[in-house]
Amino acid sequence: MQAELIVAIGAKAAARFRNSSIPVLNVMVSRTELEKIKRDTVQTSSGIYLDQPTERQFQLLRAALPQAQSIGVLISNETPELVSLRKLSTNLGMNLRIRKVRELDQLADSLEQVLSDSDVLLVLPDAEIYRSDTIRNILLETYREHVPMVGLSQNYVRAGALCAVYSTPLQMANQAAQIVTQFAKTRKLPDYQHPWQFEVAVNTQVARSLGVTITSAEQLRSKIEGGYEKLRY
To answer: What pLDDT, in 10s, does the model give residues 92-108?
Structure first.
């Protein structure tokens, strides 16, 4: 019996089934990769972005650091939602400090420039900049300059970021299960989407070292949930 739906978990599985004649639901894959699949293939597919929506990242930033006015970001050609980023910062009364990293050997200079006039560094899901061979130096420099970092995951927080909003594998699995159940009834997949559920992580040791007063992860999560409904889509 032929399968009616493939659930591809991770980037390698997504790449393997990108030309499948069977509908595919991609899970645990970055938005950048899923947008490429969506653009380059004619198959029936959908997916749950591994990345958090930009609105949710900004809500965490506002809840965790309400006094922050200048938000530093590093971007490359892979950075998604730059227009949305500018709009959100304007709506929240924040000044966005953007530095584009055209080549990796420019990263140190771009980071120094953006940290010099930013209250916080907001990490965007950009694999061209935030890589296994660069993240440690980026974290060390933000710490040295006493600029808190808002990261992308628990791993960022463990490594030295102040806080992060993320979705657990279980939360992603529950969302995928609901989509599969709906597909079984309708034989239709929804559009690509962000994670519905999320958690917040806080590094209290980093907060103390930077002299930052921050509420608990549970309180931050409640604040985001309370103000997020109007932004959901």
So the answer is: 788 899 998 988 888 99
CA dist 99 and 96 (Å) reads 10
Residue 99 near residue 110 (C-beta atoms within 8 A): yes
Q: Are residues 60 and 173 in the same domain?
A: no
The rounded Cα 216 to chain-centroid distance in angstroms is: 20
User: Are 65 and 109 members of one domain?
Assistant: yes
CA 41, CA 32: separation in Å to the nearest integer?
14
CB atoms within 10 A of CB 229: 7
Assigned domain for 193 exists: no
Do 173 and 196 touch, CB atoms closer than 8 A? no
- Alpha helical stretches, state H, the chain: 11-16, 31-40, 54-64, 82-91, 107-116, 135-144, 154-159, 169-186, 204-210, 217-228
Domain residues for 211?
54-165+199-231
Report if residue 74 sits inside a domain.
Answer: yes
Per-residue pLDDT tens over the stretch 117-156: 999 999 998 888 999 999 999 999 999 999 999 999 999 9
Count of structural domains, the chain: 2
Dist CA 50 CA 62 (whole Å) = 22
Classify residue 1: in a domain, yes or no: no
Nearest to 151 by CA among 60, 28, 55: 60
Check the CA dihedral 37-41-43-44 and report its sign: positive
Prediction pTM value: 0.89
Gap between the Cα atoms of 73 and 79, Å rounded: 10
